[in-house]
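The aim of this short unit is practical: by the end, you should be able to scan a pair of folded records and say something sensible about each. We start with the first protein, listed as its amino acid sequence and then its structure tokens.
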Amino acid sequence: MDLIAIKHYLQGKGLVAMKDVALHFNQNADTVRPLLDIWVSKGKVKRAETKACSKGCCKCDPATLELYEWVG
């Protein structure tokens, strides 16, 4: 997993949850997040955190609510 692999994954998926990125690369979210942060700092990726899912139970994994999108 490197920055280019993450770029290609995000370009192909559109809006994607942190958990999905981590699962795709067989890593945990804490390993993937710094690489995504590099793309965010360069303005190539937009981060969108949702406050809660529609169920309102607050039991969702935070990595499923942390969303990323390639904006180029």
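Turning to the second protein, read its sequence before its tokens, just as you did above.
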Amino acid sequence: MDLIEIRRELHKIPEIGFQEFKTQAFLLNILQSLQTPFMEIVKWKTGLIVGVEGYASTKKIGWRADIDGLPITEQTGLPFTSSHEGFMHACGHDVHMTIALGVIVEMAQKQPVNTTIFYFQPAEEGPGGAEPLLQYLKEERPDLVADGMFALHIAPEYPVGTVATRAGLLFANTSELFIDLKGLGGHAAYPHKTKDMSVAAAALLLQLQTIVSRSVDPIDSAVVTIGKMTSGTVQNIISDFARLEGTIRTFSAETMTLVKQKIEAICKGIEVAYECEIAIDYGSMYYEVNNTEESANKVLQLASQT
């Protein structure tokens, strides 16, 4: 099995969350060709769960790979560029899937000691596939719930062949952030008869940037990022609607609560100042990644031997 070619084929078919139909079919075709009596393949929505039974298992080891792409137009010019216009595997999930497949290939040839469960999880980038997958497993397939979880993410900033990790906190708490502002539109010649949401959104955007600098302990860490702002339709109409989209990242759950409280307080102030209505949606929430010292050291030890 040529894993490089598999990765390139996956790279050609990026699909966004819960729409990974081609991706699921591609993975399923390969996995079925590898299936052994000690392997089970389960479909869940647009994802897959692969259980490989250990021959002397004392625990269940989980391996998670995300499978969705991003709504980004690829401009790499590579011969295996995305065939789905407007979508791209820009976050490396094609590589993550391929690595998981490579591990399954090895286990199909040599049954592992401990049961290993692979989760090809959809919707990592949104709208959030981990929580509903876990809920399904707990309710419908508790036998496929792992005792511990391993995963990886490619990191282009490191030299090829480098494996990096550490014990303790590795990735922050993350929450999506969507803010909708509703005012009163009108003609550009009559601004006094409107409630301009372009101006309100601009003011809100700037105010949100004061949360980390003035409300979070400098020894702590947090990030509030607005990656997208939309408002208006044409140049001579004052907008009655605006939308901010972003993310919040913190090292602690307590700081996440604080940041959200400050966002809500600022939005209430903007509502009063600009005579508008604001709705906040925190979307999907992801808790921090904490590595146990034993697991992190084991990974580093194995990496140093290869």
